[in-house]
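hey
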């Protein structure tokens, strides 16, 4: 017996699956057409109570010749329905109950396991492999995300300094090693003595130090973008941490070096924004980076234009208002990093697989760890934020290069220029150790 055999039957009210489904309740009082008891829905093609449903199933599964002890015309009621099986069965058949709609024991078991699987999909749990993927990403993120900015060394606002000669990021032994391993990203890395500078004296929310005041008086002669050296250092610092994050992931290190470079170049702006968003205060519109605070105006004074900054600001509000947990931010970074469609990527398939693994882990994480009301649409909203950032990627590159043109001697570290450069390093021979 199969459903296909029944395709011509009037099945408008019922189906083989109905036997195991919850009964719908539209508030209307339903009456069993066999005995008049309260009905629970359509069973085997007729509105019946649970008692008559069970009776019909038993009668069909173990056929017995019933015999009416009276005249064969008993009126079946809720109270007498057990007294004459013959008339009860006759009534069942007369109202159209169909033996063909009874599922075999095998079909019932199959149906039950389908329902169990459906519930698993609705209430998913992270698999041990997914937990491991997430744990590794979070650990690597925490090692490479300096939320206190205690390792951030930057230039004071002094236009006479040559940016090429002062930058050095070797704040800790670990980052020095990782940077050397990634120095194929920046062949022209400067390695001179670090400039020490007190963090607390370099807030950009209105305070000006002596250098800056002096500088504004003759800005026409020397410089246009007052916060540029600092913003450039901040960007370099973020880039180095993001390189360390990527390099800390075995799945990333296992990729071809040319693909590693293409992925980092493609995702760098987005990953920086994700990291900055974790420090964004929606109430004040200020990024709180340890002892340093930044507002959008600092980017304006570094030479960036509203054409980029307005949508970027809106983006930071949108993403921050999703109130993501750290793990969700980290997975978001990884989805951005493992984007197979970045320019220059060669091994699309491998990277696509990595991205899918992380994206599914994020979805299952949200479905399993978030309470129902906030879970609604959170995953698609995160994906929408990733898409939104992509639209700004190109404009960022354009503006960095414009700023570099206006102020070539005093702006971005070669590392930044390398990240935004159009020419793909993928064409040069690999120098990975
Ligand atoms: Zn009944
Ligand atoms: Zn009878």
């Amino acid at each position: 017996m199969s459903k296909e055999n029944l395709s011509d039957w009037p099945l408008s009210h019922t189906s083989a699956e109905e036997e195991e489904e919850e009964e719908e309740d539209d508030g209307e009082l339903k009456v069993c057409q066999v005995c008049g008891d309260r009905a629970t829905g359509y069973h085997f093609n007729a509105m019946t109570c649970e008692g008559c449903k069970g009776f019909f199933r038993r009668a069909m599964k173990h056929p017995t010749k019933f015999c009416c002890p009276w005249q064969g015309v008993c009126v079946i009621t809720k109270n007498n329905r057990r007294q004459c099986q013959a008339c009860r069965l006759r009534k069942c058949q007369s109202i159209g109950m169909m033996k063909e709609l009874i599922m075999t024991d095998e079909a019932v078991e199959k149906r039950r396991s389908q329902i169990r699987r459906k519930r698993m999909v609705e209430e998913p749990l992270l698999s041990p492999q997914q937990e491991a993927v997430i744990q590794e990403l979070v650990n690597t993120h925490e090692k490479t995300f300096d939320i206190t900015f205690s390792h951030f060394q930057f230039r004071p606002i002094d236009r006479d300094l040559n940016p090429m000669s002062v930058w050095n990021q070797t704040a800790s032994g670990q980052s020095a090693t990782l940077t050397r391993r990634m120095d194929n990203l920046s062949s022209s890395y400067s390695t001179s003595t670090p400039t020490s500078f007190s963090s607390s004296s370099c807030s950009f929310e209105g305070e000006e130090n002596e250098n800056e005041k002096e500088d504004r008086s003759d800005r026409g002669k020397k410089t246009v973008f007052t916060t540029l050296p600092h913003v450039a250092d901040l960007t370099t610092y973020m880039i180095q941490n993001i390189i360390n994050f990527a390099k800390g992931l075995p799945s990333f290190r296992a990729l071809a070096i040319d693909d590693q470079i293409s992925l980092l170049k493609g995702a760098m702006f987005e990953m920086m924004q994700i990291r900055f968003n974790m420090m964004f205060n929606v109430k004040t519109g200020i990024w709180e980076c340890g002892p340093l605070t930044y507002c959008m105006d600092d980017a304006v004074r570094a030479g960036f234009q509203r054409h980029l900054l307005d949508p970027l600001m809106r983006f930071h509000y949108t993403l921050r208002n999703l109130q993501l947990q750290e793990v969700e931010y980290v997975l978001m970074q990884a989805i951005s990093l493992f984007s197979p469609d970045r320019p220059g990527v060669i091994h699309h398939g491998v990277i696509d697989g990595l991205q899918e693994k992380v994206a599914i882990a994020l979805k299952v994480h949200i479905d399993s760890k978030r309470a129902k009301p906030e879970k609604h649409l959170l995953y698609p909203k995160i994906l929408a934020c990733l898409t939104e950032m992509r639209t700004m990627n190109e404009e960022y590159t354009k503006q960095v290069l414009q700023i570099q043109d206006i102020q070539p001697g005093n702006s971005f570290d070669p590392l930044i220029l390398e990240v935004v450069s159009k020419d793909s390093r993928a064409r040069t021979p690999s120098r990975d150790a």
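The domain at 3-122 is CATH 3.30.50.10 (Erythroid Transcription Factor GATA-1; Chain A). The radius of gyration is 34 Å.
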